[in-house]
Amino acid sequence: MYKIIGADQKEYGPITAEQIRQWIIEGRAGAQTQVLPEGAAEWRSLGSLPEFADAFAPKSPPPGAIAGEPAFDTRVADQLKGPWIGLVVTAVLGFLFQLAALLMNVLGVSIGAMQQRQSEAWINMFSGTVGIISSILTMGIAVLILFGALRMSKLRSYGWAIAASILALAPCVSPCCLVGLPFGIWALVVLAKPEVKAAFR
């Protein structure tokens, strides 16, 4: 049992160690708060008592956390789970869709060059080349969306998460915008929440 001098300089007690620990948690007592343990002759600071040393010890970061970084917030991660999975699906489908388009363009150019007259072959090659370049660029965008989505899943790189969400809105990435548009909007809405932005490392 203990007697304690409160913040109002009044004496309280006797109270138990559990009550004192609760006061520490609530901020009503600190390391310099004066206490008189039962049977002791003089008042001592709360921080000097070995039985309360753990209450004032610096909190260690959770396993895997890096010093100076905010802890991984599982509640925010749960909010982002749907959006980042949706962005991954958008990126994968978009990449496969554009890969198929790229192969069709490459085959179309080569076959057209063999079968058509020279003037028509040049026209076909030009249009096919534009399609090839467009497919390659769009595949690159899909890779960026995938990268940003994976960073989002680990609550890292807020800027990449925003960029991936915006890129997913592009009509050329996913087939007919049916995938990218809703997931991109969903991700942006969740990322706009202050608690979500604050949780990123």
Features:
201 residues, alpha+beta, Dna Ligase, domain 1, 2 domains, 7 helices, 4 strands, 60% helix, 7% strand, rod-shaped
Characterization of this structure:
- The protein has helices spanning 17-26, 53-56, 74-115, 118-153, 158-167, 180-191, 194-199, and strands spanning 2-5, 11-15, 34-37, 44-45.
- The relative contact order is 0.12.
- It has 2 domains: 2-56, GYF domain (Dna Ligase, domain 1, 2-Layer Sandwich); 74-199.
- The longest helix is centred in the middle third of the chain and has 42 residues, at 74-115.
- With 201 residues, it is an alpha+beta fold.
- A 4-stranded antiparallel β-sheet has the order 2-1-3-4.
- Helix content is 60%, strand content 7%.
Question: Biggest sheet, in brief?
Answer: 4 strands, antiparallel
Task: Show unreliable segments.
Answer: 110-119, 121-126
What is the N-to-C order of secondary-structure elements (H for helix, E for strand)? EEHEEHHHHHH
Total domain units:
2
Helix content: 55-70%
From the alpha carbons, calculate the radius of gyration and give it in angstroms: 31 Å
Brief digest:
This protein is an alpha+beta fold. The chain has helices at 17-26, 53-56, 74-115, 118-153, 158-167, 180-191, 194-199; strands at residues 2-5, 11-15, 34-37, 44-45.
